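JOB MANIFEST
job_type = single_chain_structure
chain_count = 1
residues = 184
[input]
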Amino acid sequence: MASRQSATTHPFDLLARLERLARAHRVESPGRKKKRDEWRGVGFRLGGRRFVAPLGEVVEILTPPRVTRVPHTKRWVYGVANVRGNLLPIMDLSAYLGKGSINLNRLSRVLVVEREAVFTGLLVDEVLGMCHFLYPEQWRALVDPGVEQVAPYLDGVLHRDGNDWLIFRLTLLMQHPKFLKVAA
């Protein structure tokens, strides 16, 4: 019996050999695509342009709450609001960028962002929802000359379905010296 077992292959060795053969001859199924890097963000509209902010930079999206104006501040400081017992300063992003104040309507929203445990609301025309892009395939450098006021806060353009989405880095806005000076 001992001679017969030595002449046969151990079952684990046979399984390992079959696995090596299967891996060597495997064919990628046509329906299965190679995983690509996906970039996700919150899409929003400001004026006639589409923007997208990195998903991790938006803490919350609110319907514009009732605000109290703050005297002696720049015109783009929309006011402060009581949101669940916390004061939230709200800035009119369009007015800040020199495009005129936003006309509030049923689509207007506030993007809540945080920097160093300080929350700020940014009033935008409309939130377009979560957007998914393939990175770097759909990314390109910014070449649009019509975005001078926004340029310090942009990180390129994502292109999908015939639309350009300007990548708006809210963290760059929140640390910009101009944005930090709200007193008139």
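[summary]
The radius of gyration is 26 Å.
The chain has one domain: 38-180.
exit_status = 0
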